[in-house]
């Protein structure tokens, strides 16, 4: 994978019982309400904001008993953090909608596997030390779009699933089961025991179009600069790559994930 700019901090946490975080932007808040996985504590909407999505947000909030407060837009500007590289609050990034929501929750791998029906089809994505929240968000968005069953993330050396990642996912992360593991190599072996074929994304692997995913597949994506770690690569059942079609040597991991998941989805539909 190519080198990507890393964002070292994220003000939102995905740990701790009872903790909350902020979600903002019309699509992200709408998806959070629609999915219904997390509790929304309160919703703030800029006075004068309107349109189809805003009306749907207000309707869903009322149906779920979420308090809604209409406030001046500059108050939302002060509530939303500055975007990367900016010193002032995130003026306009909220699109007139901000929500306080319970923090993201993660399943243990054994719990995730236990919830799968015996011999049921399933697809999993594993992230090997991907540290850019924007890339994590892009992968979660593709995972949600293509119906991935779960995304596995290590506890350490992995971008937090906070504001930056949720915003990059445009709310699609609300529809993906998140799994946290201590050791990705151990998780890979456990997936194999559960009947998953584990596929590593690697430029040196066989061409993607020659690979046909099985009933249970796990795609492992490597970090932005180094790709898959050696031990992770060695524990994969096989390596699959996207052949370059021109002079550009590599793809951003978020872009590569979308291509891999589309091919997995297409092959499964054609089977």
Structure description:
This protein has helices at 26-35, 52-63, 73-79, 109-115, 133-145, 163-168, 184-193, 230-235, 253-270; strands at 20-24, 40-46, 68-71, 97-102, 122-127, 150-154, 177-181, 197-207, 216-221, 238-241. The protein is α/β, with parallel strands linked by helices. The protein has a six-stranded parallel beta sheet with strand order 7-6-5-9-8-10. It has a four-stranded mixed beta sheet with strand order 1-4-2-3. The protein starts with 19 loop residues before the first strand and ends with a helix. 42% of the residues are buried.
What's the CATH topology label of the largest domain? Alpha/beta knot
Fourth-level CATH superfamily of the largest domain:
SPOUT methyltransferase, trefoil knot domain
Strand order across the biggest sheet?
7-6-5-9-8-10
The CATH architecture category of the largest domain equals 3-Layer(aba) Sandwich
Radius of gyration: 19 Å
Amount of beta strand: 15-25%
> Helix/strand/pairing class, anyone?
alpha/beta
Average pLDDT score: 80
Tell me the series of helices and strands, N- to C-terminal. EHEHEHEHEHEHEHEEHEH
């Amino acid at each position: 994978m190519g080198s990507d700019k890393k964002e070292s901090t994220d003000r939102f946490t995905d740990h701790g019982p009872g903790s909350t975080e902020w979600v903002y932007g019309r699509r992200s808040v709408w998806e959070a309400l629609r999915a219904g996985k997390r509790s929304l504590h309160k919703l703030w909407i800029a006075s004068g904001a309107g349109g189809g999505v805003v009306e749907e947000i207000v309707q869903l909030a009322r149906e779920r008993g979420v308090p809604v407060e209409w406030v001046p837009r500059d108050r939302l500007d002060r509530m939303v953090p500055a975007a990367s590289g900016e010193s002032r609050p995130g003026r306009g990034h909220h699109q007139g909608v901000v929500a306080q929501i319970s923090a993201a929750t993660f399943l243990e791998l054994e719990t995730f596997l236990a919830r799968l029906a015996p011999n049921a089809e399933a697809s999993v994505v594993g992230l090997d030390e991907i540290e850019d929240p924007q890339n994590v968000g892009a992968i979660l968005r593709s995972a949600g779009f293509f119906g991935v069953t779960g995304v596995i993330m290590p506890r350490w050396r992995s971008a937090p699933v906070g504001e930056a990642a949720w915003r990059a996912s445009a709310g699609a992360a609300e529809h993906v089961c998140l799994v946290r593991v201590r050791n990705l190599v151990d998780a890979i072996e456990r997936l194999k025991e559960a009947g998953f074929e584990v596929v590593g994304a690697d430029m040196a692997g066989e061409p993607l179009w020659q690979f046909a995913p099985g009933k249970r597949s796990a795609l492992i994506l490597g970090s932005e600069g180094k790709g898959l770690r050696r031990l992770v690569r060695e524990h994969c059942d096989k390596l699959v790559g996207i052949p370059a079609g021109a002079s550009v040597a590599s793809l951003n991991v978020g872009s590569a994930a979308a291509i891999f998941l589309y091919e997995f989805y297409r092959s499964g539909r054609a089977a």
